Amino acid sequence: MFVGIENIGDIAVFSCKGDIVRSEAACKLREAVTSQTSARVIVIDLTEVHAIEGDGLDMLSGLQRWAFDQNIQLKLFSPSASVRNRLEHNESMQFDIARFTEMIALLADAESHRLKAA
Q1: pTM, entire model
Q2: Rounded distance, CA 107 to CA 74, Å?
Q3: What's the number of domains the chain is made of?
Q4: In this structure, what DSSP letter does residue 98 have?
């Protein structure tokens, strides 16, 4: 699995590509996300993730608890239909899946804060 990161102000956006079905993919994403302790919002873009299974769901649940403890908003964005189905039927935790308009507003706000600080 590929994980890319872009920091926009106090928002960290993670672009994932591949499947999150094995523990090594889940660990890679978890380590990348938990390194962003200064972010106000963390977005995990699931546009190019085609499958997520037990280890991946467990990792996302753990990240949600970690983010809450760090006072960071964790948002998932653009999951495919099969990934969305797995997320929505996960009994252990509900995930915040951001809509496109919410993402545009978040990124515009972060960019405006970044420009004011410059």
Answers
A1: 0.90
A2: 14
A3: 1
A4: E
